[in-house]
Amino acid sequence: MDNPKLVFVILHYKNISDTLECINSIRSLNIMDSKIVVVENGSLDSSTEVLKKYLKSIDVVFNNNNYGFAKGNNTGILYAKEKYNPEYYFVINNDITIEDANIVSEISKIYNMYEFDVLGPKIIAKNGINQNPNYLVLKTTKDIIKHLIRLMIINLLNTLGLYEIFKGEKSTKMARKKEDDDSVLVGVPLHGSALIFSKKYVEKYEKPFNESTFLFGEEEFLFYRKNRDNLNFVYTPEIIVHHKEDASLNNIYNNSNREKLNFVTRNSIKSLIQLLLLKIVNKMGGRKDE
């Protein structure tokens, strides 16, 4: 099988146990017409040697540095495009597991109905909540600026060691109708932990993810691109994956909340500033992000 219909692209960084669980969840299903590409994103640790043992059954792309989420995934997608040129690219975090052996036919069925650019599956988090559609995506310039100010305040308080004193009770609720879990939805923002790119999307964009981000904000860039270029984003409950969420970050920071929060806020601020700049340049008729 030289030209599979589907290629899984998995971004790995240090957390080898989750990466192997992700790989094995796919391999155990014996999914026909598919391949696996793992991007070893500059871990520079023993996990690199572990992945080398899988080279007979999967493709592994070795990056010399940690390029972050967007550029790291782009490396894997473009490798898959050059080697396999599939119909679909299923880009998943390494803490995702797959349980559906009929996933290729299900994706094809949905594509034949909707001709999507990007498809989002039902993503079940550890707490049992479906993370798609992702209504937490910031959609307007006003929303982005308000969230930027909030992130800057949080980052400052955290740096000063005062965040735990001033923080309010965290709300994890989001506006969601019950039918969102059961219906195909068109034009909605999608969660970045599991995205299915169609061939036409990958052929249209030299860089499937905007590389202005290192980590965080990728979903905002994608949704902005969707609105700007009139792309077809579709959510389907017919494909289900499971997501541990933040497993790699927790592993790196050993569950240190202060260090982790500093990393998250700092990188989120950088990403949103880049998105604001892109929107300004595009509004002035300047060069797009490709």
From TrEMBL:
GO terms for molecular function: glycosyltransferase activity. Pfam families: Glycos_transf_2. Residues 9-101 form the Glycosyltransferase 2-like domain. InterPro entries: Glyco_trans_2-like, Nucleotide-diphossugar_trans. Keywords: Glycosyltransferase, Transferase. SUPFAM superfamilies: Nucleotide-diphospho-sugar transferases (SSF53448). Pathway: Cell wall biogenesis; cell wall polysaccharide biosynthesis. It comes from the Bacteria. Belongs to the glycosyltransferase 2 family. This is Glycosyltransferase. It comes from Soehngenia longivitae.
